[in-house]
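Aim 2, interim progress: modelling of the NDP-bound target.
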Amino acid sequence: MAHLTDLKDKVVFVTGASSGIGRATAVAFAKEGAKLLLCARRIERLNELKSELEKSTRVHIFQLDVRDRKEVATALDALPDEWKQIDILINNAGLSRGLDKLQDGSLDDWDEMIDTNVKGLLYVTRHIVPGMIKRGHGHIVNIGSIAGHEAYQKGNVYNASKFAVNAITQGLRLDVVDTPLRVTAIDPGLVETEFSEVRFHGDKERAKSVYRGLDALTAEDIADTIIWCTSRPPHVQIAEVIIFPTNQASAAVVHRV
Ligand code: NDP
Ligand code: 8X3
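Predicted structure of the complex, ligand included:
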């Protein structure tokens, strides 16, 4: 078998590393000896994570709201040279807001989802991929969702944002087919993180009910899958992984006990 891709000393950039899947992914890459470039809006959380991880590896954090295209460009341009050579980009920053019929939806919620999940991911990707092409290697991992494959009731605009991520992932893979770059979509079902708390604007009880009676995926399950995808031999491109808890069979079909 061809050699696996060694993740040691790779520069891995994780967007939205202050919580959930992003945080667990940073921890998992640190265990592999990767160098971690981490951003999110809640810098205090990143500071705590940095203190935890820098016992084992190099970590550079910065505050970034991926919705702000100028801030994205300025922050990435201002990185110290050693952190500019990004080997692996994990486009994870994202959120859902609200669970309403489209006819009752909040325009502010819609803007926030589209600006973060679609435009933010594009701004970051557009900035980083040209350098990867120039250096002749790189791996882009987009965190999509089962919500990008199947619409579900009241999912409307969140679904649209993740369908867009799915299209962007496919489009990017086509556009870099003549390069050594790899592009992977990780599309989970229900993962118990702060996701539902954010969706329900801080309503913790309602958020808990999303995972009640179900052995949901954990952020670590997703991180583990990302490590597997990025460590395949360089000629192996995992295009897409759909990952469910065992008792979930589609976006809307979940067996609860
Ligand atoms: P969390 O709410 O736990 O984490 C979301 C992360 O995204 C946080 O670190 C948050 O950081 C960051 N983020 C949100 N908005 C911005 C922004 N404008 N700029 C920078 N960072 C931002 O949820 P998850 O870990 O579950 O979500 C991670 C990704 O996984 C999302 O893309 C989500 O759509 C996707 N996903 C989640 C599933 C689930 O069931 N949980 C299933 C399928 C996909 P901060 O607030 O500090 O900026
Ligand atoms: C998150 C999973 O099913 O809540 O993308 O949309 S779901």
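The chain has one domain: 11-243. The chain has a mean pLDDT of 98.
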